[in-house]
Amino acid sequence: MPTALVTGITGQDGTYLRRDLVERGYEVHGVVKPGHNADATEQVTLHRCDIRDAAGLRQIVSRVQPDEVYNLAGQTSVAASWVNPLATVETTGTPVGVLLDAVSRLPGERRFVQASSAEIFGLCQTIPQNESTAVSPVSPYGAAKALGHFLVGAYRARGLHASSCILFNHESPLRPQSFVTRKITRAAARISLGLEDSVRLGNLDVSRDWAWAPDVVRALQLASAADVAGDYVIGTGVQHTVRDFVQAAFRATGISDWERYVIVDPALVRPADPTLQLADSSRARERLGWEPTVAFPELVRRMVEADLEIARATG
């Protein structure tokens, strides 16, 4: 039975990943924050450790002796990274180096997968973005992810099977409400039920490449299983604006005149927000056999239906 260690195991991606690994027969260990009321019912052994605790992380890796390590932990909000940039580096960048070093000291072959982000590309002029696109982040979050991305490459050059999956936006009903996509689907659901009358949003013209989160999680596992480690851009290759997302969400509730419910608030526009992110996942498709399975309208519909169910149950 292979053993996997997953940081960020209680988040959106971590939840889907741990379910997949358990189903595949893995012994799964997860790192959670001290005091976190984590659910350990899915045959997962939890280790409570602050991701900034380097000694604690090293002890967990040494004790678990994992065959595979998936690093999904860290501060995940671009907007929040501007509020506390140092904490973002401490939780999203530095721990990557700690984990890589700890894994590299284990005997035998071990495999490491880093959940990187399209935010490392920043305001690049190359469209679509692939593994050769210049790394030029424009936010503390992007910079922290870039640090982790480069560290993976450094340890891979020294012989560790370490891969960096550069993840473009990916969504599901498990996405926290602090993210604009979940804010939109929740608002559309509640407005359609008469529980709210409007939603405030920022720039509706920002374009993103949105994938289904379980599809992205499958890419992480394929990268770990690959004969040769590498960097892999993971996205659908199809772009949609926030406006498209809003329209699709309201349409899923039967509302066509969505404009009357949306208030554009300049205060919600992020500084230096990349206007266009589009993935060229040719390498992942060719080398890993990865393909997205859920198209954009279906992704949005699934999120709205989940929020309708919640709204009807809780009011």
Describe the structure concisely.
It is built from eleven helices and 13 strands. It is α/β, with parallel strands linked by helices.
General description of the model:
This protein has 315 residues and is an alpha/beta fold. It has 2 domains: 3-170 and 212-234, Rossmann fold, CATH 3.40.50.720; 173-208 and 239-276 and 294-314, UDP-galactose 4-epimerase, domain 1. Helices cover 41% and strands 17% of the residues. It has helices spanning 12-23, 54-64, 78-83, 85-92, 94-104, 140-157, 180-192, 213-225, 242-252, 282-288, 296-314; strands at 3-7, 27-32, 44-48, 68-71, 111-117, 161-167, 170-171, 199-201, 207-208, 211-212, 231-234, 240-241, 262-264. α2 (54-64) runs parallel beside α5. It is globular and about 60 Å long.
Q: How is this fold's topology laid out?
A:
Layout (H helix, E strand, L loop, with lengths): L2 E5 L4 H12 L3 E6 L11 E5 L5 H11 L3 E4 L6 H6 L1 H8 L1 H11 L6 E7 L22 H18 L3 E7 L2 E2 L8 H13 L6 E3 L5 E2 L2 E2 H13 L5 E4 L5 E2 H11 L9 E3 L17 H7 L7 H19 L1
Parallel strand pairs: 1-2, 1-4, 2-3, 4-5, 5-6, 6-11, 7-10, 8-13
Antiparallel strand pairs: 9-12
Sum up the structure in keywords.
alpha/beta, two-stranded parallel ribbon, single chain, 17% strand, 11 helices, seven-stranded parallel sheet, Rossmann fold, 2 domains, 13 strands, UDP-galactose 4-epimerase, domain 1, globular, 315 residues
